[in-house]
Structure formats: C-alpha cells, structure tokens
Design a protein that fits this description.
This protein has 93 residues and is an all-alpha fold. 78% of the residues lie in helices and 0% in strands. The protein is built from three helices and no strands. The longest helix is centred in the middle third of the chain and has 27 residues, at 33-59.
C-alpha cells in the first residue's frame, strides 16, 4: 500500500516540480538548467532518505517490528501530504 501511495504522489508531483524548476524565470538568475536539475535531484534524494529513515524509525522502533497503532496514522498523514502537494505547488506559483 505504501508503494502505491508513493507512486501516486510521484506521478502527481515529480514531473510538475521538475518543469517548474528548470523553466527560465521572468528575471534571469544566473542558474543553468543543469544546475537547477542537479540541485533538485540531490535535494529530493536526500529528503526521501531522511523521510524514509525517520518514518521507519517511528513506525518500527523496536526489533519486534511494526507497531500497527503507529503505522496507519503515519500512512494516512503521508498520503494526505502527497495528495495536497499539487495544490500547494499551484498556490505557490
């Protein structure tokens, strides 16, 4: 289920975000398309690694495994965040 939610979020947000970042701004800022794409790719990878590690540590804090009482609220929170991302991106633009 988590992979399904993540893939929906990636499909809704990743390409749109990349397009916004590499589109030339109204006022030139001196940042090339390659620099912008590299920066967002590294930031996305680092952010994903941190979010994945923190979420796993919260949901399964012991060797016993996943705690269901923490799993479902966390999944719902992540899913809502992914679903709201396109709305927030459009508002910020």
């Amino acid at each position: 289920m988590g992979y399904g939610v993540a893939s929906i979020g990636m499909g809704l947000t990743h390409l749109d975000t990349m397009n916004r970042i590499v589109t030339d701004p109204a006022e030139p800022d001196g940042i090339t398309h390659a620099q912008a794409a590299t920066a967002v790719t590294i930031a996305g990878a680092a952010g994903g690694a941190v979010l994945g590690t923190a979420t796993t540590a919260f949901v399964a804090p012991a060797a016993a495994g996943v705690e269901p009482s923490r799993l479902w609220p966390t999944l719902v929170l992540l899913a809502v965040g992914l679903l709201l991302t396109p709305l927030l991106a459009r508002r910020a633009a």
